[in-house]
Hints:
Low-confidence stretches: 1-17
Number of helices: 7
Order of helices and strands: HEHEEEHEEEEEEHEHEHEEEEEEEH
Radius of gyration: 21 Å
Distance between the termini: 52 Å
Shape: elongated
Amino acid sequence: MGTGLLNLELIMPDEMQEQVSQSGEPYDLLIIGGGPAGMTAAVYSARKQLKTLLISKDLGGQLLLTSDIENYMGYQYISGRELTDKFKAQMEQFPIVDIVTGDSVEKLVDRGGEFLATTTNSREYTGKTAIIASGKRSRPLNVPGERELVGRGVSYCATCDAPLFKGKDVAIIGGGNSGLTAAIDLTGIANRIYVIDVNHTWQADPVLIEKTKGAENFTALLSHRVISIQGENTVTGITVESLETQESKEFPVQGVFVEIGLIPNSEFAGDLVQLNKWGEIIVDCSCRTNVPGVFGAGDVTTVPAKQISVAIGEGAKSALSVHRYLLMNT
């Protein structure tokens, strides 16, 4: 059973790539992350003739976990997979961009004006500058039973795993945009859907709230929290508690979709750049961090409105800022 986080068919690129310069010279730019911000930065850096290396576990990032996209200009509707393929094709037309996928940066350090990226596969890459565009990852519930049942009923991606729960009862944890999008995806698939949120009102956009109205298999449990997830080999149920009455109830479900937000993928740079209290990289309007030569773009940064279009704009800005920095400092 898929998990969203571990569903390699969706998350990993079709072909693992490692196209790396053998010259021994540092790259002009290291881009860490292959989501919309990272791929856009690569296109803009290539157009400025900067020798660039992009490192990422996949190409697409959170975009691969998005089903229906209806607010990206130029398309009334496009899926996350389709948009990823278009971004990827545009980036890969530039041979000046080297690409490493299937690997992640574990540490980024300053080596006296150059930046060394060490990966989980024990590879090392050096650049004169760096753009951190590593995005975010799903936030876990941290309740008993969750970790043990990941891949056996617990999922972090309805887009990936919804078809596996046809005719079953499922719980969605989270009443924001991600949670209600998951509910909409599952309405025509699951037998019954419980949507559980600690808030007393929905936190999602009105258009998503409207789409859930009238669904006969949809049950809202607002002002409730999940206490535990039951099951041995697979999920068999959840226990929730009312925040108003403290009464607890058990619901027999075969699937649990955790949609309670995201955590910035910034740990590898926490000793280098300044982070806010949520772990986001602090950047200015030109995508500069507190370290000269290191820039940030997309959801991993403090830029508000975590949207595809915003990430693309930040990716473009960050690459232009890198070009300007190199002109002034090399």
